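Customer escalation, tier 2.

The customer says the design service returned an amino acid string that "doesn't look like it belongs to this structure." They asked us to rerun it and document both sides in this ticket. The original structure tokens are below, unchanged.
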């Protein structure tokens, strides 16, 4: 098991790489989508939040895919800083919105994703995290509800407002879309769209040496903004894996999101999916409560016993990367850094315990 740090697009700099190394990380997971682009309700010094009803920001350039050269350059910079580039997290809605929406550009967008996967293979980047969701990470509220009054993110009931035209996955991909909202679809239709997507791209991922890694729906509720969600209970991950049996069909397992789910058990889920070798990498986050009423907490509090989670992964021989997901904002000049350093220190202490001859694990 390895320790990593997730870095947003604007954090792909020498200083953030140095911070990761100094905090004990060997790996990084990077985001190439700029979630904060032109989003006034989405401050850059926190996880992307948007507003309760507003999207994160504006999607990228639909004509500009991530090239192999660009990816190799980023990988080189990360390796020069003494780190390993473990994964790219998330596709840009600009590149694949009509796969999610089954829209007129779908065939071109499938080619986009295949090209990105091939470019990643050429650049030696082994994992692509994705989130097959129409609503995306939305409907949460930010408040000083964390320990000691820390600014934290949570959910107070589901959001019913429909998604406006031109928006998907909580980002705006077409600012000139006609007025109106997205037509609701069924859960079966969403699963059909995922199955078609996997059928078309998994063979390319296999040939490129890249694993696709699915994030569950955050927040995990059956319906959000009048659209179905895909993986909102732990057992639904198994259905996703069954659609395309392949080592390239894998999971970006989010402990916090699984803990928010109303059925199942987060420890059994971690055991089940790590035993199958299906976890590409892990998001670590603690929470109090269950969807649709929960809040994110610091790693050392909350409902989840993180020592138990990491012990299960260790026992099952998990070789992948764990990264902090989000943390509450600490009151200081560098809230993001402080929250991450606090989480990373906690995880390092558990790693040390697991390696200690005194360990009972
Ligand atoms: Mn997550």
């Amino acid at each position: 098991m390895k320790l990593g740090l997730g870095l947003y697009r604007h954090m792909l700099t020498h200083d953030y790489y140095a911070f990761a190394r100094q905090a004990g990380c060997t790996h990084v997971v990077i985001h190439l989508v700029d979630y904060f682009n032109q989003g006034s309700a989405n401050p850059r010094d926190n996880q992307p939040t948007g507003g309760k009803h507003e999207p994160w920001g504006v999607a990228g350039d639909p004509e500009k895919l991530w090239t192999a050269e660009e990816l190799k350059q980023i990988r080189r910079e990360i390796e020069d800083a003494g780190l390993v580039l473990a994964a790219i997290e998330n596709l840009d809605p600009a590149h694949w919105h009509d796969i999610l929406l089954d829209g007129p550009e779908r065939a071109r967008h499938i080619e986009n994703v295949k090209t990105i996967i091939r470019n990643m293979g050429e650049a030696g980047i082994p994992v692509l995290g994705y989130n097959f969701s129409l609503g995306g990470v939305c409907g949460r509220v930010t408040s000083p509800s964390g320990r000691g009054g820390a600014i934290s993110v949570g959910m107070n009931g589901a959001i019913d407002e429909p998604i406006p035209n031109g928006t998907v996955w909580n980002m705006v991909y077409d600012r000139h879309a006609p007025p109106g909202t997205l037509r609701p679809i069924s859960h079966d239709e969403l699963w059909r769209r995922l199955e078609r997507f996997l059928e078309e791209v998994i063979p390319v991922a296999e040939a490129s040496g890249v694993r696709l890694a699915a994030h569950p729906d955050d927040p995990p509720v059956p319906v959000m903004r009048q659209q179905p969600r895909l993986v909102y209970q732990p057992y639904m991950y198994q259905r996703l894996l069954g659609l395309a049996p392949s080592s390239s069909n894998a999971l970006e397992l989010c402990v916090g999101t699984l803990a928010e789910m109303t059925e199942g058990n987060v420890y059994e889920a971690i055991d089940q999916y790590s035993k199958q070798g299906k976890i590409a990498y892990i998001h670590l986050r603690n929470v109090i409560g269950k969807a649709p009423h929960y809040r994110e907490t610091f790693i050392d509090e909350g409902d989840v016993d993180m020592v138990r989670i990491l012990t299960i992964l260790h026992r099952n021989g998990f070789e992948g990367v764990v990264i902090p997901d989000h943390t509450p904002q600490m009151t200081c000049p560098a809230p993001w850094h402080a929250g991450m350093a606090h989480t990373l220190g906690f995880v390092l202490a558990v790693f040390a315990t697991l390696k200690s001859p005194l360990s009972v694990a």
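Tier 2 assessment: The sequence is consistent with the input. The chain has one domain: 2-355. Residues 215, 218, 254, 257, 283, 325 surround manganese (II) ion (CB under 6 Å). Sent an explanation to the customer and offered a walkthrough call.
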